[in-house]
Every structure is written in structure tokens, then in C-alpha cells.
Amino acid sequence: MHFLRASKRHAYGLRRMSSTTTPYLVTPKEVSELTRSNPISVSVLDSSWFMPDSPRKAKDEFLAKRIPTAQYLDLDEVASDHELGLKHMMPDPKTFAEACGMF
What we know:
- By secondary structure, the chain is an alpha+beta fold.
- It has helices at residues 28-37, 58-65, 75-78, 93-101, and strands at residues 6-11, 14-17, 45-46, 71-72.
């Protein structure tokens, strides 16, 4: 999962993005403004996932109503195997980098 990170400084009325501060959530309006004002340096990565018994399908929902310019990361495809059979373990850095490199 990717988090936008923000510093306390403001630029263009928005919190300035930084990779050295605490993750936080942004509003839909802020995402819209960020992706419009600086589309090259802002990436939105959707890694939505639903329980297997749910009628909801994350990929289908992404395709139907995604944030413009957003990319989809299928957690089932990149999750690392776990010796106890646990699902959706964080992939190792190389696997995650390769999956994100597709975007």
C-alpha cells in the first residue's frame, strides 16, 4: 500500500509531499488538486482488496470508477508466500519494486 506523505509546509495551498514524514490520508479534493497540479511527481496506486467471499471485486471497481491517472496493484499477484500459508504478506523489496516498476 502506498501512502502520501506530507510535511507541515504548504505549497499552492496543499501540504508539500515528502518521503521523510509520517504517512497521512488526503481528501479527494487534495488528490484531485495534486494530480492536476503536478501529474509527473504524484502517483496514485490503488491496492484495494476484498475478502474472497465478498461480492465486490477490487479490480472491477477500479476499472469502473478509478481516480484519473491511478494505477492498480493486485495484492494477490505480488504478495509473498508465507511458510504458514498466510495470505497477503508484504512482498520482499525486490518483488515490490518490480511490481511498482510496471507503472
